[in-house]
User: Fold these one by one.
Assistant:
Number 1:
Amino acid sequence: MTPRALAAFLLLSAATSVPAFAQPAPPAATAGSNRALSPQDRARALVAAMTTEEKLAIIHGYFPPLAKPVTPIAMTPSAGHIPGIPRLGIPTLRESDASLGVANQIEQRKGDTATALPASLATAASFDPRIAYAGGAMIGAEARAKTFNVLLAGGVNLTRDPWNGRNFEYMGEDPLLSGVMAGEHIRGVQSNHIVSTIKHFALNSQETGRTVLDARIDKAALRESDLLAFEIATEIGDPASVMCAYNKVNGDYACENDWLLNGVLKRDWGYKGFVMSDWGAVHSAEKAALAGLDQESGQELDDAIHFAQPFEEAFKAGRIPMARLDDMVTRILHGVIASGLMDDPVPDTVRQIDYAAHANVAQQAAEQGIVLLKNEGDLLPLARTARRIVLIGAHADVGVLSGGGSSQVRSVGGAPVEIPLTKGAAASFARMTWHASSPMKAIQALAPQAEVVYVDGSDPKAAAQAAKDADIAIVFAWQWQTEAQDTETIRLPDNQDAMIDAVASANRKTIVVLETGGPVEMPWLAKVPALVEAWYPGQRGGEAIANVLLGDVNPSGRLPITFPVSASQAPRSMPAGLPELRAADARRAAGDTGNYGMTGGVAPFSVDYPEGAEIGYRWYAKTGRKPLFPFGYGLTYTRFAYANLKVQDGPALTVSFDVTNTGARTGADAPQLYVEAKSSAGVAAYRLAGFDKLTLSPGETRRVSMTVDPRVIARFDEAARKWHLDGGTYALTVGHFAGDSALRGTATLQPQTLKP
Ligand code: BGC
C-alpha cells in the first residue's frame, strides 16, 4: 500500500468503523425519526433504508388533472402531489399554490374558499416584516387545515419591468426589501410545520414567452440584484424547497442550469433543501439531474415525464450515479424534516378554520400596504360632512379586484364578478376575479350621514355628470394582471384615462383609488387632488380602503416599486417576445390547431438585461431620470422628521437617528437608509441599505438604528466567487423615499471580502 493509499484507507475506516464501546447503530428507518439527530443525518438514515424503487418514486410528482393512473389523491384538484412511503413515515406531499393564500384558481375544488391576502406587492409596501410573517403564518395554517403540506409560496422575483404580469405576486424591485419580506413570509408559512417554496429561481422577470425565453444578464450583476433577494430570503425563511423557473438564464433552462442550481444555490449558499421544478419547466433527465434539479413537479405538464423512465434509463446506464439519486432524495427529505412536517404530519381530514380571525390578518396587511400618493389640500381623510359621495368604476359596489393565475384564491364570500378570458396564455386557468369586499358598503358604514351611490364608469359623460351631482367623487381605477401574460402597456385599460379626466374636470374633489398590479401611467394626475394605490387589496380590501379614506387608518404604505412617468423611462418599454407571440397568434387565427404544450407555439427569443443590477430606483438614480413617484414614497395624515444622525463605521456600518412624529395624529413611518456604493460594473450604485417601520404618537420621538448587511453595498466578483466591499468613504442619506436626503452623512469603511 502506498502511503497515500494507506492514509486514504485509515481515513475511510475512521469514518465507517464503529468503536467497540458504541451502541449498535439504530436501524436506519428509526434513525430517520430520531429528533436528536440533525435533519441531514435523519434524511441520510432514511435514504439508507429506502429501496431504489422508492427513491426513484419520490423524485417526480403528479399533476392531478392529468395524472394517470387515477388514484383518489391524484384526483384532488390542486397543484400536485408526490406519493409518500408509509413504511418509513414519509408523508405524501400535497402541494397547493401560493403566496396569497390557498389557491383554487377556477374553482377546481367546488365551494372551497380560503382567506385571500392582498397582493404580495401590498405586503411589501407595508415595509413591515411583521406583516409579511403574519400573512405567511395565516395562509400556512389554512393550507395545513385543508390537508396541504407544501405551499408553493415565497415569490420573490425582482420587478425589472412594470408590465410584468406577475409583479403583484412579488415583493418589488429592491433585493433587501424583497429578501427580508419574502424571508419573513416563508418563515411564517413554515411555522405551521409545512414546506414552503421560494420561487421562481431565477430571472423569471416577464411572463410573455416565459417557457421559451433566454434571459441574458451579467452574472455578477445578477448576484447583486435578483439573486441577492433570493439569498437574503433563503437565509431568513429557510425554505424547505426552491422552485426553479421556466425561462433560460444565459443559455440554459433554469431547471437544468448548473451555475444557478449546483453553483450558486447549493455550493455557494450551502443550501441543503431540494429544488423542485416549476410545472412544465423540465426539459431533460440527465442534464437536469446533474445540474441540480431534485424533483420534477406536475410531470404531466412537461414535454415528457423526464424523471420517470428517461431518468431510470440514464441511472441504470450509470450516467446518473447512485450518489446523485441519494443526494436528491436526501435533499427532499431534508426539507420534509427541517420544516417540521415529518414530526408533525398534516392530518388528512379537513379541519375548521377561524376565518374571521384570518380575515383580520388580510385586512391589516391591506391597510398597512395602501399607499397615499397625493393629498392636495388635505382632501383626505374625507370630512364626515359630505352629503353625497359617488363611487365610480371597478365594480366598487360589490368588490375589489384580484390578480390572475396560479395564485388566485377563491376567497371567503365568493366572487361577485368573474370574467372568463377568451384568448391568451392564461385563458385556461385564469379569470378576472373580484373578491366580495364592497368598498361601497364599507364607505357607507363609515359615513352614515352621506348618500353613497355607484356608477360603473363605462361612459365618461355619465360618470362626469354623476361626479358633478356629488360632493365627492371617488374613482376606482383598475388594471388586471395575470400570470402567463404581460400587459403590453402600463396605461389603464378600457378608456379609464378619459373617464378619470372627465370626472376630475366635473368635480375638483375627485379621489382616485388604484387597484393595479403595479405602476400605471397617469396622464390625468395634475387634475386629481388625491390619489391612493390600493394594489389588489385582498379579501378585506373594501374595508381597508374605506378605513384609509375616512381616516380610521392612517396610511403608512410606501412604494416597493418605482412608478415611471411613462413606460419609456424604464430600461425596456414593452415585453420582449411580442413579435414571436403575435406570430403564434396569427398562425392560430389562420387555423393552426397544433398542440404546442407549454410554449403555446411561441418561437424562442432572448431578453437582454443590460441594466444589470441597476434596476428600479437604482436605474433612475444612475440615469438621472425623475419618475412619477419614487420607490419608498408614500404620504400619511401626519408628518415625520429625522434628526441627530450618528454613523458608526469601521468593520461594520450602523446608522442611527431620531424619528419624530411632528403632526397631530398617531401614525407609522418607514424611514429608509440609502448608501452610495460601487457595483461590479464599476458604476456609482445607489442602494437601499436599511429600513424600519415604527408607530409614533403625536410629538413622540424614537431612536432608530440600522446595521447594514455589507452585501447590499458590496460588489460581487464572479471569478473569485466573493463579495468585495471596497475600503473608503461612502456617502449615505436617510430619507422618506429614494432620492430624498433628509439627513446626510458619510461612513469610512474598511475593505472586506465576504463569502458568496
Ligand atoms: C407557476 C408556479 C406555480 C405552479 C403550480 C406555475 O405555472 O409558475 O408559480 O406554483 O404553476 O401551480
Number 2:
Amino acid sequence: MITQLEQIREKAIERVRSAANLQELEQLRIKYLGKKGELTALLKNMGKLSAEERPVVGQLANSIREKLDSAMKDRTEALSREAMDLRLQEEALDVTIPGKTTELGKKHPMSIVLDETKEIFIGMGFEIAEGPEIETEYYNFTALNTKPGHPARDWQDTFYLREDSSVLLRTQTSPVQVRVMEKKKPPIRIISPGRVYRKDEVDATHSPMFHQIEGLVVDKGITMTDLKGTLVQFVGKLYGPDAKLRFRPHHFPFTEPSCEIDIMCFECRGEGCRVCKGEGWIELLGAGMVHPRVLEGCGIDTDIYSGFAFGIGVERLTMRRFSVSDMRLFFENDIRFLSQF
Ligand code: PHE
C-alpha cells in the first residue's frame, strides 16, 4: 500500500505541476482527491491494515493530500497569473501612439474670393441667381442678340453637345440674365456665379473650364455711371483703395455701349511682365448697358427701363486677390498650394 501511495504521489504531483489549464487541474483534483478519487479509494482500505501499519500509512496519506493540495494551489496561481499576463499583453494600450486626427480642409482660394464677392454685392442689394451649365443655343447666343454666323458661336470655341448646335456647354454666364428677366420684372439686381466652358488652350491665364460672375441690374433710369460706380465700389472693397481700374471700349452683341475693364497687373504694377503678357494690365471683366433688343426679347419695356450687365472672371479676380501668377495652380489640387490660404 505504501508503494501504491508513493506512486500516486509521484504521478499526481507531476501531473498537477504540468497541468495546462484550470479545467485540467480540476479534473486531476477529482481523479485523486475526489470522493471516488484514487487516494480516497486507497484510504477506504485502511481498515484491512494492521495496527502498526495504520498510523504510518495514515501519516503518509495525509502528507500526500497536503502536498497535492499545495501543488494544486501553486499551479492554480501560476495559471491565473499566466492568463492575466496574456490578457494584459493582448489588451495592451500604447498611450504614446499619436491620436488619429481628421485633417480639416480649407476653403479653396476661389471660394474665399467668391464668398467675399457675394458679401459685397449682397451688401449693395443684389440677390444670387443660378442657371444651368448645359445651355441651349437660344439662351447662350440667340436671346443675347448673337446672330447666326457670329464668331463667338464658332465650333472652334464652343463645346457643342449636338451636331445641330442646339445644345452646348455655356460659354458665359450671360444666359442667366435672360433666364432671370423672363421670370422677374424690374427692379432686378442679381449676380450669378458659375462655371463656363470654352475651347481655350491652357496657359497661365486660360483654361477650358473657368468661372464667371454675371451681374445684372435693370431699373428705371439706370445709366453707365451706375455701372461704373458699382464696379469701382466692388473692386475697392475687394482689393483696397489702391486697386487701379482701366475702362476700355469694347464690343459685345448683348450690350451697347460695351467696355472691358482691366486691373493693373499685381505682378509688375503696370510695367509689363509674363503674367500680363507685357500689357501692364489684366482683363478682369466685360460689361455694358444691356442691349435694348435683349430687354425687349424678355418683355421689358425699354421706354421705362434700362440696365447694365457685367461678367467677371473669378480665376483672375482670385489671382489678383492673392498675387497668384499662374491660374493652373487653382486646378491642380496641390495641398502645398491650397493650405496657404
Ligand atoms: N459674357 C461676356 C464674356 O464672357 C462678359 C459680359 C457680361 C459682357 C455681361 C457684357 C455684359 O466675355
Number 3:
Amino acid sequence: MSITVRVPAKVNVQLAVGAPRPDGYHDLANVFLAVGLYDTVTATPADGLRLTVTGPDAAQVPLDGSNLAARAALALAERAGRTADVHLHIAKDIPVAGGMAGGSADAAAALVACDALWGLATPREVLLSICADLGSDVPFSLVGEAALGTGRGEKLEPLEVGGTFHWVFAAADGGLSTPAVYREFDRLCEGREVPAPTASPALLAALREGDPHALAATVDNDLQPAALSLNPALAATLAAGTEAGALAALVSGSGPTTAFLAEDAPAAARIAEALTASGTCRSARVAASPAPGATVVGQDPEPDRDTVPARADQG
Ligand code: ATP
C-alpha cells in the first residue's frame, strides 16, 4: 500500500508585518494564494522512519529529523499512539528556501499521506492544529486556494477568488533564511513606528473579482525591502520582469524567489521566456492560481518499492 499526496507552493499577494512581539514572532496580515507548482509526497510502510528526496533542489533538503515532512509524520504518530514506520518520498519541484513554503508544503502533504496510510481519519481541525504547531505556513499548505492568515499567519480565514491568475516565478541563486529576513526587517524598522498589520480591502476585492490589473495595483510585501537588502541582485530580476510586461513584480514571501503577475497565460509564457533570456535568474516558470491544498492523488495497493528513485536515506 502507498499513498501519494500533491501539495502546492504559495505566493503572498499581501504580507503586512507588524512590530516584533515579546515572543519574537511578528503579527501578520498574510494573504496567501496557492499556486500550481507542486511537490508530491508518497508514504509507504517501512521499518522505522525513512526519507528520500528527488528533484532539482534535492541536495539542499535536510534528510535528518529537521525535515518538516519527517516532523509531521512523527507528530501524527505520537498523537495516534503508534510508531512512525513509514518511508516518505518527496518529489520536490518547489524551490528550496525560496519563500514559497516548500518545507511547509511537504509537512502538510506528509500529514495527509500518513493519516490515509495509517487509516486514522484524523478530524480536519486536529490536522490543522498539528500543522500550526509545525510552522506558521503549514496550515495554509493543507487548505490551499486562498486565505487570510492572521496572528503569526496560522489563523486562517478562506478567501473567495473570482478567476484564474497567471504568474511567473523566477528562482534565484542561493536561498534566503526566513528568520534572517525578519531580523533584517526589524533592523530596517528600528526607530520607526510599525503600524498594526491589516489586510487591504482593495486587494481582497481584486481577488474576489479575479481582476489581475486590480490585484497588480494592490500587491504588497513588507518583507521585500529586507529581502532586497540581503540580496540586492533581486532588483535586476524585478526590473527585467517589469520590462517584459509583468503587471506586478514582487519578492515571494521572504524570497529570494520573485513573482510576476501576468495579464493572461500567453503573457506569462512571454515574461518567463524574457526572464530566462535576461540572465538575471536561475530559471523562470509559469504557474496559475489558485490551486487546491494537500490532496491525495494516488493510492497504490502494492507499489514496487524499487521504482522509487532515492537520493539518500535517513534511517
Ligand atoms: P517559507 O516561504 O515558508 O518561509 P521557504 O520557501 O523560504 O519557506 P523552505 O523551502 O520551506 O523555505 O525551506 C526553508 C528551510 O527549511 C530549508 O533551508 C531547509 O533547511 C529546511 N527544510 C526542512 N524540511 C524541508 C523540506 N521538506 N523541504 C525543504 N526544506 C526543508
Number 4:
Amino acid sequence: MKTHRIAAIPGDGIGPEVIGAGLEVLQAIAARDGNFQVEVTSFDWGSDYYRRHGVMMPADGLDRLRDLDAIYFGAVGDSAIPDHVTLWGLRLAICQGFDQYANVRPTRVLAGLRSPLRDCSPGELDWVIVRENSEGEYAGNGGRTHRGHPEEVATEVAIFTRSGIERIMRFAFAVAEARPRRHLTVVTKSNAQRHGMVLWDEVAAAVARSFPSVTWEKMLVDAMAARMVLQPAGIDTVVATNLHADILSDLAAALAGSIGVAPTANINPERRYPSMFEPIHGSAFDIVGKGIANPIGTFWTAVQMLEHLGEPAAASRLMTAIEAVTQAGIVTPDLGGTATTAQVKVAVCQAIAGRNQASQGEI
Ligand code: IPM
Ligand code: MG
C-alpha cells in the first residue's frame, strides 16, 4: 500500500480546529479508498511557538519538511504579533523556500450554497484563479530609511522576471487547457504600470503561442473586478500577479458564498519540494474556540492535495462527499447554517463511508 507522508501545521487561530477536522476526513477517505494510507507528522509552529522561542519555526524548519510529500497548513496570524512577522516567519518562508510559485484557487458555488449575486445560477460561477506566488508585489524587495523623521522613505518594489512570468503563464495555460472551456483571462495593469506589467503581457502573448487550443484574453484588473460581479459566466481560468490575485480571490470566494469554503494550493510544479495546501480564510480570531469554524475550505484543499498526490479517485470522492453535505444544508453559521465544525466533519466522514442521510447512497 502506498503511504503519503503529510506535514500538518495547524498554526494560529482557528487553524488547529479546521486542520484537526481535515486530518480526520483525510483518514476517512484513505480508509474508504483502501489503496493508500496517510502518515501525519504535526508541527506546533506559529505564534505560540514564537512566544516561547522568538521565531515562528525552528531554523531547520524547512529541512524537517523537505522530504515529506505535502504540507497541510491551517492559518497564521495573531492579534499580539505584527502580521508581517508571523507571515514572513512561517507561511511565506515555506512558500518562498520551497519555490511554490503556482498558487491555485478554485472557486465554485458548491451544491446547496447561494451566491450573493442575484442572477447567478449554479454553474455560472466556476473559476480557477492561478496566482503568481513567488515574486511580483510580494517579492519582499524594498526598505525603509530615515526612520521616524519627516523625510522617512519606504519602498516596496514589485519584481517581475521573465523566467518567473514565463513559468506561471505556462502553468496557467496548462490549467486552462485541461478544463473543458479552455479559456484563460490574463489579468494585468499595463496601462498604468508600464514596466513589469508590460513584460507580463509580452510573455503571456509569447507563451500563448504554445497553447493554440486555449483562447485567451487580456483584462485590466479593475475591469476584471467589475466583470466578476456583472458577468461571472464568461470567466473560466484566470492568471494574475501575486497581489492582484490575492484581491480577486477574496472577491471570488465571497461571490461563491463564503470565504470559509475557499481552498488554495501552493504548488511547486516540478516537485522538487513539497507543496502546501490550506484554506484561504486565515486565523479568524473572532470565532476561535467557538467550534463554529467552517472546515469546508480545509476539506476542499485536501481534495487539491489528493489530486497532487496522484489520488484522483479519492479526491473526487471527497469532493462529492463535501457537496452532499453542503447540499443537505449541514453548514456552519457563516453560510447561514447552525452546524458546528464537528457536525460538518462527522457528516462528511459519514458521506465518505456512504452512511449519511445527506448522501444518495454510496459515494
Ligand atoms: C492569502 C492571504 C495572504 C496573502 C495573507 C495572509 C498575507 O490573504 O493567502 O490570500 O495575502 O497572501
Ligand atoms: Mg488573500
